[in-house]
Amino acid sequence: MGFLPEEHITRHRPEIKLLVVDDREDNLFSIETILDKDGYTIRKANSGRAALKILLKEHDFTLILMDVQMPGLNGFETATLISERDKLKHIPIIFITAHDYGEENIFKGYQMGGVDYIYKPINPELLRAKVAVFVELYTKNHQLMAQEQKLVAANHELEREVEERIKSEEQVKSLNLQLMQNINQLKSTNEELERFAYVASHDLQEPLRKIIIFGDRLTDKYNTVLGTEGQDFLGRMVNASKRMQMLIKNLLAFSRSTANGDSVVDTDMNVVLENVLSDLEEQIELKKATLSIGELPTLPIVPSQFRQLFQNLIINALKFCKEDCPPHIAIYAEKIRGIQIAGINSSAFNEEFYRIYVKDNGIGFDSQYSDQIFTVFKRLHSFDKYEGTGIGLSICKKIVEKHNGVIAAESRVGEGATFIITLPAGKAEVVRDKATVQ
Question: In this model, does residue 5 exceed pLDDT 50?
Fold first, then answer.
């Protein structure tokens, strides 16, 4: 290994400390002068004992330059004492001597920690070159040690991450198991609640029917006897009973909409809609409503459920009409591709879907309630002004979701409302993340 350029030695390296040991001040000064330009930190000792005192406190020397012939402890003896200490034995020693020792003494010096010899009178360039070699070895070793520490730290970090990942995977497995148990429990609870709602609603109808019947009989037979106040009380009781009866019927309808008893068959929705309009003919005439009906598709559906869906949406349009404007209801459909549906799975981009629109010119509602109106018992208006139980749109949502579709509403106050039902043309599912249909 040759002489290194000065700029290479002094750049990108740890502090380089040299210990120079010689009993003559002129020799110490000479060596310091030669090496000073290379940017080393130089400590000087004028005897072997002085060198040992320095080494008791400082162990981070890169190299020791030591004269062999010194009074008291000579260079070889001092090197022997240095090599006996674990913290110091790694420091290389270059012996400086004016004598040409035989091979036996030179070998002895190597055994005592010596790595090289420099003979007096000292050649400055040779001294700098030899020191530079050991400095570079020290620097490389220091870099390797630093890299080793980084690798050890990185390995510990990797081990920690692996352990955390294993723990996380175990936690995920445990959470998934718990989730599945919760889902099964929730499913069972929902089924029980649906059965309870159906049975309770069914059983509650009989006493309500009697209340209404006997209330009507009281009105017919004892109307004059009751007086004005009594008639008012009795009328309120009968009306409250009828509202309760309506609520129970809607609860029964909601329970039926979640049941799986009916079969899915290919159904012409035009026929379903015609039957609904026939049933609502009296209400349509009463409201002086007009309708625009477009061609609807034939799809695999439960006919009775979609009959209920159309009925609920049309009744809503008739109910929430403007006082000074007869209701107009438009019902039509269009075929689209999956890529036109926001939030749909990319695998269904090329699938075919149908959108069915039920649009009215009624009072509308604030768009911030577009999702809330499908919640059970959610009402945007008081019962005194608009009758209803807040279940009808919830039933619509249940029916559409059972058919792997989505229902959405668009509206502005005073500008009517549009209900959009998106259904797969086949058996594909529309939107799995419940994204808003646009």
Answer: no
Tokens of 12: 């990108």
Quick one: tokens of 154?
Answer: 């990185």
Does this model's pTM top 0.85? no
pLDDT, tens digit, 9 for 90 and up, residues 195-243: 666 666 666 677 777 888 888 888 888 877 877 888 888 888 877 777 6
Q: Tens digit of pLDDT for each residue in 116-174?
A: 888 888 888 888 888 888 888 878 877 787 788 888 888 888 888 888 888 888 888 88
Contact 417, 411 (CB under 8 A): yes
- Find where tokens 């090197």 sit: 79
Q: Which of 281, 299, 433 is nearest to 356 (CA)?
A: 299
- Structural contact between residues 359 and 214, judged by C-beta atoms closer than 8 angstroms: no
Given the candidates 3.40.50.720, 3.40.50.620, 3.90.1150.10, 3.40.50.2300, the CATH classification of the domain at 6-122 is: 3.40.50.2300
Please state, in angstroms and rounded to a whole number, the distance separating the CA atoms of residues 79 and 92: 10
Q: Is the C-alpha dihedral spanning 321, 285, 270, 276 positive or negative?
A: positive
CB neighbours of 143 closer than 8 A, spacing ≥ 6?
Answer: none
Between 368 and 246, residue with greater pLDDT: 368
Cα(136)–Cα(133) distance, integer angstroms: 5
Where do the structural domains in the chain lie, given as residue ranges?
A: 6-122, 148-259, 263-424
| Neighbour tally for 292: CB within 10 Å | 10
CATH no. for 148-259: 1.10.287
pLDDT tens digits, residue range 279-331? 889 989 999 999 999 999 999 988 888 988 998 899 889 988 888 889 999 99
> Is 64's pLDDT higher than 50?
yes
What are phi and psi for residue 409, nearest 5 degrees?
Answer: -130, 140
Rounded Cα distance between 136 and 11, Å, is: 11
Strand order of the β-sheet with 63-67 is 41-45, 17-21, 63-67, 93-97, 114-119
Task: Please state, in angstroms and rounded to a whole number, the distance separating the CA atoms of residues 401 and 254.
Answer: 13
Please state whether 416 falls in left (phi above 0), alpha (psi between -120 and 50) or beta: left
Domain with residues 263-424, CATH architecture:
2-Layer Sandwich (3.30)
H helices of 259-385, where? 269-279, 281-286, 303-319
